[in-house]
Amino acid sequence: MDLGFESLRDHQFIMIEIKYRKFIEKDNEAIIELWKKCNLIVPWNDPHKDIMRKLKIKDDLFIIGEKSKKIIASAMAGYDGHRGYIYYLAVLPEYQKKGVGSEILEIVENKLLKIGCPKINLFVRNSNVKVKNFYKINYYKLQDSQVYGKRLIEDN
Ligand SMILES: CC(C)(COP(=O)(O)OP(=O)(O)OC[C@H]1O[C@@H](n2cnc3c(N)ncnc32)[C@H](O)[C@@H]1OP(=O)(O)O)[C@@H](O)C(=O)NCCC(=O)NCCS
Description:
It contains 5 helices and 5 strands. It has helices at 5-8, 28-37, 47-56, 100-114, 132-137; strands at residues 19-22, 62-67, 70-79, 84-91, 120-121.
């Protein structure tokens, strides 16, 4: 059986049992630790503020995965009524390449689909192109667009 990029997502290679649930405030420090270990913390974003802002949006789209009560994965998704977005997708290094990232991605995709989101866009930093295969095997395609940003609040 060919288990190339196209079919990898359908391959049941998850051997570890992970509990997925909504993020709650007391997960704060543990999730920031996870993001640090995954190199997702950048000087221009304050993770505490990012979490606080997300919690003000009352949706069900900030998910963590835990194993034996330890947070090992996260995905912070959102829907603006037109597109869905996913940020802070992370899997603790020692649990990577076991299908956990694809699994949590699929969970947030299903949640977005359930609320009528027709399409997801997400950002991959140019310094992080090594994850492009991960998105490719999960059927994400590079878009013919450029991302423009304008900061309204300086965090640091
Ligand atoms: C991206 C990430 C969430 C993927 O999680 P994961 O649990 O390893 O993903 P899966 O096991 O479902 O998929 C693994 C596949 O994705 C690709 N992949 C994932 N991480 C990769 C990496 N660092 N380098 C190259 N390929 C990678 C590979 O094709 C891999 O398959 P393989 O093991 O057969 O080579 C995880 O690598 C991570 O937390 N990275 C650091 C944070 C990050 O960059 N997040 C994305 C921000 S845009």
